[in-house]
Structure formats: C-alpha cells, structure tokens
Write a structure and sequence with these properties.
CATH class of the domain at 147-302: Mainly Alpha
Number of helices: 20
Number of strands: 0
Radius of gyration: 22 Å
Length: 377
C-alpha cells in the first residue's frame, strides 16, 4: 500500500501522459484495498483523484470502471449515486463487448439489488458470473434471502477452502457464514466462526474487521440469550461502524442489539429497532427494513409511519399497490417493475391480506385514498 501511495502521488502529479496508466493504477489499488481491507485509504485517494480529474478537465478517465466509485459511495450510504455508477459501467461493458478490468459491476449491483429486495433482478445479474470470486457474497446473500441456507453455507465453505480461513480476505466471508449459521440455528458453530473472525481482527489491527467481529460475537450472544455481552459487543460495533461511515452495517448492529435486549429491556429494544428501521429506509435497504418493521410488530408497536395498514406493506408491495391504483393488470405491473407475473401475483395476494381487502377494486380504492400523490411514469 505504501508503493501504491507513491504511485498515485506520481500519477496525480502529472507524470504519466497516458490516462490509461492512471486508470490501471486506480483499478489495481482497488483490488489491493480489498485484500488489505484498507477502504479508508482507498476513499482518500478516490477524493484526490476526482479533484485531479476536475483540475485537468478529464471527467471521463474512470467511466470504464465506475465500480471503484460505486464501492466508495455505497460504503458511505450513498446507494443511489453508487447504483448509477454501476448501471452506467455495466451498460458500457455490454455495449463495447469488453471484459471487466477488476471486480465485475454486475456482482456489485447484484449485492445492492438483494439489499433492495429486488431478488429476481439480482439473480439475473449474477447469471453467467456465478463462479467469479467476487460473486460469492452476493450469491450467498441471495441464497439467504430465499431461505436456501444449505446452499449459502456450501458456497461459503468452498470459497473459504480456496482462500484459507485465517487471512484478511476471509473476513467478510466468515461474517456471512456466521449469519448463515445463526439462520440454521447453529449457535455453537457461529460462536466458533466468530472467534475465528476475532482472531483475524486482532492480528490485522484493522478497526473495520474488529467492527465485523464485534457484530458477529454480539449477534451470537443475542441468539444465545446473553443480553449483557450482546449489548457490550454490539455497542462497540455501532461505535466503530459509525466512525468509519458505514451506516448500513451500523443499522444492522442496532437491530441485532434490539434483539439482544428485547427480553430484559423492551423499551430500549424498541428504540434500537426504530433507529435501525429509519436508517434502512433512508438507505433503501428494503429487505432489512421489512425485517426491522416485523420485529417492531412482534414487540407490539408500529414500525413504519403513515396509515397503520400501509405500515404492514413492504416497499415492493407498496409499489404494487400503487400500480393497482392505476388499474394495471398483473402483466402490466410485471413489465413496469421488471419482475415475473408469478411474483406480482404473490405481492397482490400479500397486499389483499395485509390491507383486508377482497379484490383489486377495493385495493385500488385504498391506494387512491391512502397513498401520497404520485405521477405515474
């Protein structure tokens, strides 16, 4: 990383005449930052590089590799801006027939789509790229979202066997494995994996890995009923994730903390869960927002704002309801939202059940009365 610092300093000082040199260098540095988990250094150079492009009137030097920019924006919670970079980069690759220079943007966009609850789109993005190393995490997230925990575990173990389980590269995969193990009810397995992750954090001295380890150990404590340890570790995770501007991870830690203290401190659990819900909704993390809202309902309180029944709907179900209000058929809704008619039918059924309406006409009336004004596209 010291040599990358020297190279970037020379490049942004104007030594190379060919801008592709700068692009290649920045692309390689992104991969190096992933290996060393030095995202903060990557973010600093990202800002300096944009300043350089602006000063020298080279705004398009990185358009071939917007994955880099999206990575920084996504970590900082600027998902909308990061999404635009990924979409533009993917379209540029597809139109030119070129190969991705480092991390394929389809895999990063798939990760975002899973968090947004757009699972069919995520699956389509990963098709053909499943065996890429960088596809492991979005593929596992998709398996988790569809309750295929055995598939998720198998994919993670395969990749971890390739990498080894005691390196920095293994850290994000171990964090996902803990999530899978907890979903499978394997608390002891999750505890063992969490200790492995904590060992990597201690050896590396990286605060971001330490934050992941605290989140993992706190989540295991919450799952096993140790409210005191859960509160201590998850509080530390929140502090670290907040310090490094990682709002999505911080929100996940808040929700884990809510679960950990629910039995002993129900009021605190409500506060933590609401904090998480607000953060998820600001980010557009639909799946996590739905989980937080459901947990709040389990605590006996309302989650989302607005009419009570609307608060029961997921973001996607609310989108379907709005289109029902326009009188669209299932096929038309499917085309508008880029999902299958079967998925639309499932959403429509959920909308009917949650709003206590009997047919499309009643749902359309509800939408027209209760949903905010919007102009159909």
């Amino acid at each position: 990383m010291t040599r990358f610092d020297q190279a970037m300093a020379a490049a942004t000082a104007g030594e190379p005449r060919d801008l592709r040199t700068l692009g290649d260098l920045f692309c390689a540095m992104m991969l190096a930052a992933e290996v060393t988990l030095e995202a903060d250094r990557f973010e600093q150079w990202n800002h300096l590089l944009f300043d350089y492009m602006k000063r020298n009137n080279h705004p398009d030097v990185l358009t071939f590799c917007g994955t880099c920019c999206a990575e920084v924006l996504g970590a900082a919670g600027q998902w909308e801006d990061g999404e635009k970079w990924l979409i533009d980069t993917l379209r540029a690759l597809e139109s030119s027939g070129q190969r991705a220079r480092c991390v394929h943007p389809a895999t990063r966009l798939a990760s975002l789509r899973v968090m947004q609850g757009r699972l069919e789109e995520a699956e389509a993005l990963l098709r053909g790229y499943e065996d890429l190393p960088e596809a492991t995490q979005p593929q596992v997230a998709l398996f988790l979202a569809t309750d295929q925990t055995a598939m998720a575990a198998a994919r993670l173990h395969r990749r971890l066997n390739e990498l080894g389980r005691d390196t920095l590269l293994a850290a994000p995969l171990l964090a996902q494995l803990i999530e899978v193990q907890l979903a499978q009810g394997d608390a002891e397995g999750a505890r063992t994996t969490a200790e492995m992750l904590a060992g990597i954090a201690e050896r590396s001295g990286r605060d971001r890995v330490a934050a992941e380890a605290e989140l993992a150990r706190g989540s295991v404590a919450a799952a096993t009923g140790d409210a005191r340890e859960a509160a201590e570790r998850l509080g530390r995770a929140i502090e670290l994730f907040t310090r490094y501007h990682m709002p999505h991870k911080a929100a996940r830690a808040h929700l884990a903390l809510a679960r950990g203290v629910a039995s002993e401190e129900p009021e605190r659990a409500v506060e933590e869960a609401r904090h998480a819900l607000d953060a998820f909704e600001r980010l557009g993390a639909t799946r996590d927002a739905d989980v937080a809202a459901r947990f709040l309902r389990e605590l006996g309180v309302g989650g989302r704002t607005g009419p009570k029944l609307l608060g029961e709907l997921s973001k996607r179900e609310a989108e379907v309801l709005r289109l029902l209000g326009y009188g669209l058929t299932n096929a038309e809704i499917a085309a508008r939202l880029y999902i299958s008619t079967k998925t639309v039918a499932t959403h429509v059924g959920n909308v009917f059940a949650k709003l206590h309406v009997r047919n499309r006409a009643e749902a359309a009336t509800f939408a027209q009365r209760q949903l905010p004004e919007d102009v159909p596209s």
